[in-house]
Amino acid sequence: MIDWELVAEKIENIIVADEKRPPPPKDGERNPKVAYQHLDVGQCKSLRDIAQRLNHNGIIIADDVGMGKTRIATTLTKAVTEAGGRVAILVPPGLGFQWGDELAKSQVQDVPEILRSLDAYLNSWAGDNPWANHKVLIVSHAFCNWQVKSNPKKNWKWSLLPQTLALVQAQLRESG
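Given the sequence above, the corresponding structure tokens read:
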């Protein structure tokens, strides 16, 4: 079980560390050797408000385009993983790269490629590092776009749902 008070502390630590960095230059000319502030004032306020509410009923982040929802969510992801939790991020199919970039900028480590299809899911289990071993998982909306067809040979995919649940539960029992 995640300790939400610890997550709130991690959020504050991330904000304080970020506020100690110099602000990004207004002219857009960035020195690649300088670590500039990653969060703006409004994003820091939102994160502090989120930290206060996490222990109650959770949160929903909703705002206009360009207001920093992704950056807030990736900072929250960093705090949750640093506190020992896991995060699943469900994204529209075309935004996987943006989320990967923002997670990297927020210094979230060990994020596998976006899970877009059943084949990618199955292939991850065939390798040495299945998605269940990661603290962060990005899942495309398209992953859930399975279609039932009248051909019974193609309906085998639906039997994977209970198998997937069983595998996840086994992983959780082993780690917990």
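The chain has a mean pLDDT of 85. Try to locate this feature in the token string yourself.
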